[in-house]
Amino acid sequence: MSVQIIDGRAVAAELRDDVIARVRALREMGVHPRLTIVFVGHNESSVAYVRNLVKTGERVGVEVAVDDLPDSTPPDTIREHLFRLGADPSVHGVMLQQPLPGHLSIREIADAIPIGKDVDGTHPTNQGHLAFGSGSDFVPATPAAVMLLLERSPHWPLCGRNAVMIGRSVVVGLPVAMLMLAQNATVTVLHKESPSLQPYVRMADVVVVATGVPGLIRGEDLAPGATVIDVGTTVVEGVLKGDVDFESVRQVAGALTPVPGGVGPVTNIALLQNVIKAAERLSG
Fold first, then answer.
1. Whole-prediction pTM
2. What's the CA gap between 76 and 81, in Å, rounded?
3. In this structure, are strands 206-209 and 227-230 parallel, antiparallel, or unpaired?
4. What is the DSSP letter of 188?
5. CATH superfamily of the domain spanning 141-264
6. Could you tell me where in the chain the CATH 3.40.50.720 domains are found?
7. How far apart are CA 62 and CA 19, in angstroms?
8. pLDDT, tens digit, for every residue of 229-279?
């Protein structure tokens, strides 16, 4: 079987021209789009993601600033920092980088993210709109990227398809499941407390994996011809690895995203699209 490699870099390039044009229009109005990332601690995978986001911002004309806070920063201090960014007119987008250090809970902090600048859709109000299918101001960037890649797969449209989401995080798993449900897919959500991934994965037309467990899904786990979207990004001995064993899966799947070069580049552009959207709104 010949597998379709869904190239995230090519998809990002498709979207980049529109982003650059909108940035140019804002700059002509005297508005310089700016994203501030609040980064608590030092997660290796997050460092790689933020570094690439800064570079992508430079390419399209969006300033990406990183506010580094120590691992030991208490929740109240992070909340105060987020409130200050909400009041700063020069900042158009605010993102709290996840995962947070183990002693912090996103539930303690998320409602302090300024809702009009919540470009990664983390505020409970934006999460609620997504859950109700009533439209969110900002769809979280990684789930948005997953859907953009699925649109280019042989299983689009998703209506009536069997889809499995492995991972239930509020950052990726749950939003992706809700977005696939909104496309009328039949969605099963699996996670670390599920007794087994089978028979669900083998029954699926579409498999999205976001667990942080390198090589979790192998070719023998899948139905022939399945579309597989790998959201995993784990640094193993200095190399970025996905949740999919690429070589065995490419022998079985009909379509597959690589790591790196799959979800990541599209996530960057999706996030910057949200920053531009926020800047356009805030500038009237």
1. 0.92
2. 9
3. parallel
4. E
5. NAD(P)-binding Rossmann-like Domain (3.40.50.720)
6. 141-264
7. 9
8. 999 988 888 888 999 999 999 999 999 999 999 999 999 999 999 999 999
